[in-house]
Amino acid sequence: MKREIMMRVHSARVYNGGTYGLLKLVPVEGILPGDIEPGQFVQVDVPDCKGAFLRRPISVNFVDYEANELWLLVRAAGKGTRSLIACVEGQQLSVILPLGRGFSMPEKGGRVLLVGGGVGVAPLLYFGKVLKDNGYVPEFALGARSAGDLLMLDEFEKYGPVHVATENGELGTKGFVTQLPAMAEDIAHIACCGPTPMMKAVAKIAKARGINCEVSLENAMACGLGACLCCVEDTDHGRVCVCTEGPVFNINQLKWEL
What we know:
With 258 residues, the chain is an alpha/beta fold. Helices cover 17% and strands 34% of the residues. The protein has 2 domains: 3-99, Elongation Factor Tu (Ef-tu), domain 3, CATH 2.40.30.10; 112-216, Nucleotide-binding domain of ferredoxin-NADP reductase (FNR) module (Rossmann fold, 3-Layer(aba) Sandwich).
């Protein structure tokens, strides 16, 4: 059940010269909701930023229930997100959570690959933890333009093998995440998040090989509640709001031309 919670910045870290920021938030009062699922998102009120009237949708990066922390990995895409990255320890933020539909638990017994590009790796960290806690051995295939855009690799390595690709060849395989050797091996289930062209390339591979595949869409979301119709996507059930019916969809639901 979604609710609005005042949260305090427990710690803030900047990556790649301020291109990305990691906020670790704790509730001002009480404890985090226990029903936050991997792949869901939150709507954050932007503090002290002229022109940023709407909340910003941010994927749940991680939930640390022992520390009572919610992690948000933010990319500087505009005034609002730059303002969030500039938050400092002790600052308070209004957060609506949890929102949307998250990833499905795959069937046991097959190889599970979590594929992310850029800041799209964010929701895969928490999903990796939940998978490991439930007896899976997830693997991660993470891609970015450069080594500086590969984020939180040490955290991902806690939950499974990590395969990386950079477009400029600075780290791992040179090229796109779809060119990783790990993508050519037997896979039973793929969970994917990142730029739409990357997700479509992954979906094309999955369809051709009969791999069950879910993707987390990054359509522009203004309200996060299905009222503004900014994030509508064509599916086999008609045009639906990504913020309420997603952001995670099975690729067989989407009317993508692959």
